[in-house]
Amino acid sequence: MAQARPYYADKSLSAAFYDVVTAADERLAGDIEAYAGLAAPGSSVLELGAGGGRVTFALAEQGYTVTGIEIAPAMLAQAQARLAQLPAELAARVELRRGDMTALDLKRTFDLVICPYFTLAHVPAGTAWRNTFATAARHLPPGGRAAFHLPLLEIMRMPGPPKEMVVFDRPLPGGGRLQLHVLERTFKAAIGRLDQVIEYVERDAAGAVLRRSPERLTFYLTDPEPLAATAGLVRDRDPIPLGGVGDIWVFRRV
Ligand SMILES: C[S@@+](CC[C@H](N)C(=O)[O-])C[C@H]1O[C@@H](n2cnc3c(N)ncnc32)[C@H](O)[C@@H]1O
Fold first, then answer.
1. Which of 131, 184, 186, 191 has a CA positioned 20 to 30 A from the CA of residue 167?
2. Which are the contacts of 238, defined by CB distance < 8 A and separation ≥ 6?
3. Which residue range is the domain that position 30 belongs to?
4. CA-nearest residue, atom 11 of ligand 1
5. Could you give the number of structural domains in the chain?
6. In ligand 1, which atom is closest to the CA atom of 119?
7. Residue 207 lies in a domain
8. 8 CB under 6 A from ligand 1?
9. Cα dihedral value 148, 64, 50, 35, nearest 10
10. Is any atom of ligand 1 closer than 6 Å to the C-beta of 75?
11. Which CATH number characterizes residue 87's domain?
12. What pTM was computed for the model?
């Protein structure tokens, strides 16, 4: 098994190049509009797993007031750096906090809670999911909605490509390229767990390798409805399909 850093760890290339990889991910097209469609501009939004602020800042630009919670210092630092560059009026609508979505209590409610881009799938699909749903419920008034973007089971089940195959290849700002390979991909159906080791390779403009970093990304998946119900969250509507790889599940606090 390859020696691998956890995804989003300090000095990881998954954190350093998160924006480059995510900006190229067409399967996310429409996610911000989907979240915005759940609450009117001006509403307050709690984002669980805010990362570098891709969704946070896009919603703030549309007039939402957003509190972003992020566990990984390397990702939070990127969001904070972006926040520091914003005009004061926009920055006033964003709050960023280090925190764990499985154990968060801000002692206030929001109009909407969102957990974008498979963030819930980053934590084990049992107690950690239950606790995250409880976090969402704790921060909503009765009738308030929470949206969780989860991968599809059939995508998790797909076999991995050959190790040598370049699955992502893009120019980097300032020259050079970023390439990704999938070194390992193992799905354990009985527990709904996908283990992947994705190798990031940064090359200079001449093609020489500058940095190479295998990084471990684990996803967990189960039926969210029974676990959400334990927190008093019921399904609000049919899941919203996104990019053919996932659904946004929308729950309402009873
Ligand atoms: C795929 S990224 C999504 C970032 C951003 N929401 C977006 O859509 O671009 C998932 C993020 O969730 C964070 N995360 C994972 N587990 C978390 C937890 N227990 N509490 C808070 N954040 C967590 C990761 O560090 C990572 O930054």
1. 191
2. none
3. 24-151+222-253
4. 49
5. 1
6. 10
7. no
8. yes
9. 20
10. yes
11. 3.40.50.150
12. 0.97
DSSP state of 23: H
Burial of 176 (0-12, 13-18, 19+ CB in 10 A): middle
Interval between CA 173 and ligand 1 midpoint (Å): 24
Q: Is residue 161 part of a domain?
A: no
* pLDDT tens across the length of the chain (254 residues): 458 999 999 999 999 999 999 999 999 999 999 999 999 999 999 999 999 999 999 999 999 999 999 999 999 999 999 999 999 999 999 999 999 999 999 999 999 999 999 999 999 999 999 999 999 999 999 999 999 999 999 999 999 999 999 999 999 988 999 999 999 999 999 999 999 999 999 999 999 999 999 999 999 999 999 999 999 999 999 999 999 999 999 999 99
User: Residues 253, 228: contact at Cβ < 8 Å?
Assistant: no
Token pair for 179: 């390439």
Task: Read off the pLDDT of residues 22-79 as tens digits, 9 standing for 90 and up.
Answer: 999 999 999 999 999 999 999 999 999 999 999 999 999 999 999 999 999 999 999 9
Please check whether residue 44 lies inside any domain of the structure: yes
3-state secondary structure string, 208-232?
Answer: CEEEEEEEEEEEECCCHHHHHHHCC
Q: Which residues contact 27 (CB under 8 A, 6 or more apart)?
A: 242, 243, 244, 245, 246
Does residue 116 lie within any of the structural domains? yes
Place of tokens 């990127």: 78
Extract the tokens encoding 70: 């992020």
In angstroms, the Cα distances linking 211 to 11, 87, 176, 208, 243 are 11, 34, 11, 9, 31
What distance in Å separates the CA atoms of residue 90 and residue 112, rounded to the nearest whole number? 19
